[in-house]
Design a protein that fits this description.
It comes from Pseudodesulfovibrio alkaliphilus. The chain is α/β, with parallel strands linked by helices and 196 residues long. 44% of the residues lie in helices and 11% in strands.
Length: 196
């Protein structure tokens, strides 16, 4: 049985992904390495969700809490925010590939390929680019298990996030709040044109 290292971004994304890979004959070990997730409380919720799913499915997980460094992540993204998703995918896949190679795994993959909200083709291309001779990238379109993964995560009570993970995506999710009416100090409604 081939050993595969699976980068896991959260619990719900891991459910059907793990099932698919095991059905394909892989012995899967998870890797929770996600320096993009902010704030820390959100990181812990997703880590714990990942570990809960892994526990239910009998999968070991390598957790890289010691490499969770928000300052370094923001430094890497500074002035490159428009390309941040590409950079973030690359950082996580590169680390996964390195750990897979060092650990003697027969390949690696990622649950990022499960999400309908991520740039699937970019992730697949990056995975292939990050592949090592001894640890190739294992591609599969895990989006096929999207609905089942959502349903199962709800049944199991696994924490389900509402944004990608970084503060940029969280701010974009709530950007509409800045479009509402502006209120004056003291609770009055918005100033009408010509009011002093």
């Amino acid at each position: 049985m081939k050993r595969l290292l699976l980068h896991i971004c959260c619990g719900p994304c891991a459910i059907t992904t793990l099932g698919t890979l095991r059905h394909q004959g892989f012995e899967v070990t998870g890797l929770f390495y996600n320096p993009n997730i902010h704030p820390l409380t959100e990181y812990v919720k997703r880590r714990d969700g990942c570990l809960e799913v892994a526990g239910r499915l009998g999968v070991k997980v390598i957790v890289k809490d010691d490499e969770y460094d928000p300052k370094a992540w923001f430094r890497d993204m500074a002035h490159r925010e428009a390309n941040r998703c590409f950079l973030c995918y690359a950082r996580r896949l590169e680390r996964t590939a390195a750990i897979a190679e060092k650990g003697g795994f027969d390949g690696f993959s990622t649950t990022l390929l499960y999400s309908k909200h991520q740039n699937h083709e970019t992730i697949a291309d990056l995975g292939r680019d990050m592949a090592r001779k001894s640890a190739p990238f294992v591609y599969h379109d895990f989006r096929q298990g999207w609905s089942e993964g959502i349903e199962t995560s709800r049944e199991w009570g696994i924490y389900r996030q509402q944004y990608c993970g970084c503060l940029y995506s969280e701010n974009e999710r709530h950007a509409r709040l800045l479009q509402g009416p502006k209120r004056q100090p003291g609770g009055k409604g918005p100033k009408q044109r010509g009011e002093q």
